[in-house]
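Ticket #4471: structure export looks truncated?
Reporter: QA, pipeline team
Priority: medium

Steps to reproduce: submit the single chain below to the structure queue and open the exported record.
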Amino acid sequence: MWTGWYEERRGSGGGRRSTGITVRLSSWLCTVLWLWTLWLPVRPQCPESCHCAGDTATVMCSDAELREIPEGIPTDTVVLHLERNFIRTIPETAFSDLVHLRDLYLSHNRIDSLSSGALRHLGPELRLLDLSHNQLRQASREDFGITWAKTRLYHNPWHCDCALQELMETLNLEPETVNSIVCESSMRGAGEGGRWEDPGSLGEHAGQPLVKLLDSGVNFCSLQRKTTDVAMLVTMFVWFFMVIVYVVYYVRQNQAEARRHLEYLKSLPSPRKTPTEADTLSTGF
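Actual output as written to the record:
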């Protein structure tokens, strides 16, 4: 009987010890897993309608029917594809967090305007900027900032003026496509066109590649300065003419007032002499 009792106690004691060991082991494993998850790098979520390849840091948002730059693009993105969408404008802070971006594809959209400094926030690592096949008409150096990336601007309805000329001289344009940057319209020189010319005229250089125009000696900045000088001369002439008209009007008004005053004085009755004054006069004689 004692033997059976001892075996029963020993069996029950061993069960409790094994249960305690299992509980402690489970707690230790949970702690290790929890700490491990804290140290793991959190992978940013991918924007809706896009595909993110974490191994190459590439974000594919092509043919996604996007109408604006998507939010939530991972900050470690190196290659970003946004071509063949319906994007119309680029906000100023659209790419401000993408400091590691190297290739940015924005071709075949409907981009017709760039916010001031929209591309200025792109990091120095940018190698390719594709804005071809859009609706851009005007752009300036302030929109792009300082970048050494190879840039594609062809197949846009450009309005060739001084700002675009300065931009062309600043950017690192892709040599293979630079001849496809064509002026759909251009600024008119000081003597170009007449008073009755159609206001919708596209200008003398419409339909010609901008690079060839610049190589041939066309300088849109000098044309702009000439136009500005002529406008200043016309403005000064108008102001001078207005001053002369005002002076003539002022003189004539004063003359008219003087004549009216003189006629008024003549119309007044002459003052009669008093007896004292008459006696004084007769005594003098």
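Status: closed, not a bug. The export was complete when the record was re-opened. Leaving a note from the reviewer for reference: The first helix runs from residue 2 to 39.
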